[in-house]
Amino acid sequence: MLVNVHVKNFAIIDEADIDLSDNLNIFTGETGAGKSLLLGALNMALGGRTPKDIVSEAADFALSELTFVNVSGQVSEKLAEQGIDASDELVISKKLMNNGRSVVRVNGETVTAAFVKELASSLIDIYGQNENQLLYSTKRQLSIIDEYAGSDADLLKADIKRAYSEYKALKQEADSCIDDEKTRARRLELLKYEIDEIEAAALKDGEEEDLKERHKLLANVQLIEEGLDCAYDCINGEGRISDSLSQAVKALSRVAEFDEKLASIVEILSDADNCISDAMREISGYSDSLPDDRGEIREIEERLDLLSGLKAKYGNSIEEINRYYDEACLELQKLEDFEGYRAGLQKKLEDAVELLTKKSAKLTVLRKKSAEQLEKKISEALLELNFNQVVFKIEMTVKDGCHSDGADECSFMISLNPGEKVKPLSEIASGGELSRIMLGIKSVMAGRDAIGTLIFDEIDAGISGRTAQKVSEKLCKIANDHQVVCITHLPQIAAMADSHYEIRKDVENGRTITAISRLSEDNIKYELARLTGGAEITETVLTGAMEMKQLADRRKQEIRGK
Question: What percent of the chain is helix, strand and coil (3-state, nearest 5)?
């Protein structure tokens, strides 16, 4: 559940801190007061793309921060995978700088926008005109049926997806079979040649790196010898370092008994003398170990040329060449017994189709059963939303062939007037009607998901009077099980609020700003009067607003069984 929204420097919202209740939260305000800005701020925090010019001109950044409590187990699991604890509350924030850079955090930990979007899908559903338009899509309609079917449908769809992947791989392999005998014979000959060539090379892992190191040594033997000779002469030549150190040790040893500090200097010089002696022995030993077989470098170069040629043909590394070799051997085996291989592949493909068909058929049965139940429940919900003569049907059909999401197609069909045939939703419903249909569907689905917060924008498009009253009652009913946030301009819907917020424009110090505040009981009647009567609010209008609120409160108690 969303308990707090904190917005700062977002367009003309200087700062807003909104505490939400756990049931029906209503936002109202004059046209252009900034209701869309509130939704924009929510979308920004939830990972949506936001233009950098949304940052207030007088600020360096914009901030949107959302606080949730009592998140679902699904959300907790996603957070745990990222090492984020949300046992008390979940705080999601996005800070957008005026240079376009942004920082997204969850409980103080920096995360990606993609992760927040994934979280948002389990925290909030936002319904506006764009979401309503998706309802015209038959794919979206099918997904609603699957959502209603629940975890059983999810498991079957996962099985079908795996079965389809296996089928697709086998189908591609079968399609790539070489049917022409002459082409097969040429391929066999080429494979044998390639396999023999790789086998003859007797490749070893890490061989190329070792050869390159050995080649570098052999190619520079003369330079190495010169360096060693020079170093040896510096140590052991005329004016030898070793002799000088020995003389220094002897000279100080004779006087070391007079001062302990001299003894420590003698020890340091003795260690240096020993190190010089060790270095001389190492130089001599290394010189003796240098190779003197100049023919070896030619052998290494020939071997490296061979490896380079194989890499050009079969892969960029010995590992890739060996992988190509394994694949070539497998293909050779198939071609040498082509009829047996093709018969086996065909059997596997038939088995894959049979398995996919069986799993798809199980999903079809489940979808049809769910569609029957959903059809009845949505019809009832639409009647409650003042679609008095509505006929709602869900038509299910089966597609030919194999598919990754099952074999079904569906179409939501509707007739809004007596005597009219049912037709696809996209051909019948207007924008306002579509909003109510989506509300009806959501009211049916509300008890079957774990999403805590539902946000409705423009749910009142194209409605008024009795229909608006019905919509308000439906929102109230949904708010029994879910937190609901609704932006509206209709008094009938606003009167049903458990918490009522006003969005308004003010002018401060020559600047226009948007302010958002929760209304007191006293101020609610004035806002309802404004929504009802317009600019001039008379005592009669105020009295009507108070009566509307009282009637809404009584109806709310009836709906919630209080």
Answer: 60, 15, 25
